[in-house]
Amino acid sequence: MRRGKKFAAAAASVDGSKLYAPADALNAIKSSAFAKFDESVDVAVHLGVDPRHADQIVRGTVVLPHGTGKTVRILVIAQGDKAREAEAAGADFVGPEYVDKIKSGDWLECDAVVATPDMMSQVGKIGRILGPRGLMPNPKSGTVTQDVASAVKEIKAGKIEFRVDKTGNLHAPIGRASFSQEQLAENFGTFMDSVVRAKPAAAKGTYVKQVSVSTTMGPGVKVETAGY
């Protein structure tokens, strides 16, 4: 993949062979961000697990103390009192009618979907659409719940979900380049603590093998894994 001069300059400003302390790594990517938009700051973690085995799947949720910097549009599939609770909590779209809209291909303008348990038989009809996009509600992530108000508030506050892929990697957004170094450091620490707590009992050997951070357009910076 051909890179431009700005990327080359950003890459030259970091030492690709060095493992940076988390705070230094975050400061480096902030300093090298060059896009005209507010780039996302992402973390990538390579874990010593074999996701082919069900007992080594790593997944979880975490509320980042400073959010992700992204405005999240939330759809809540609920009715009656639960629909009203979702609206009061700040949900952007509410109602069972969105199932048919999504099924017909006319609408999918949301970033997260929450549903009450009684609506999951309807939500299942659009599972093939929501699933590949990471939008399918799931009890383990707290998006299938009776307490829709709390679910909406947590997502709006910066709750993210993470799940290891088939190659043993995790990817997650932890903020924006415009965040202060302190805000990014707190988000990074909170995320990594959650990943460590999610370690499967069946995982053997080194759990956190590699960590790197990057902005949307910038180079990755390797982070020390000592302590994880």
Q: Nutshell version of this structure?
A:
The protein is an alpha/beta fold and 228 residues long. The chain is 31% helix and 21% strand.
Detailed description of the structure:
It is built from 8 helices and 9 strands. It has helices spanning 5-12, 22-32, 81-89, 97-103, 120-123, 127-130, 148-157, 181-197; strands at residues 40-47, 59-63, 74-77, 93-94, 112-115, 159-163, 169-176, 208-215, 221-223. The mean pLDDT is 94. The longest helix has 17 residues, at 181-197. It is an alpha/beta fold and 228 residues long. The radius of gyration is 19 Å and the shape is globular.
Based on DSSP secondary structure assignment, what is the total number of beta strands? 9
**H/E series:** HHEEEHEHEHHHEEHEE
Helices, by number, come to: 8
Task: Provide the residue-averaged pLDDT.
Answer: 94
Strand order of the largest sheet: 7-1-8-9
Q: Uncertain runs with pLDDT below 50, 5 residues or more?
A: none
Separation, N- and C-terminal Cα atoms: 33 Å
Biggest β-sheet strands, sense, barrel = 4 strands, antiparallel
Broad shape: globular
Structural class: alpha/beta
Backbone CA Rg: 19 Å
The portion of residues forming beta strands comes to: 15-25%
Q: Percent range for helical residues?
A: 25-40%
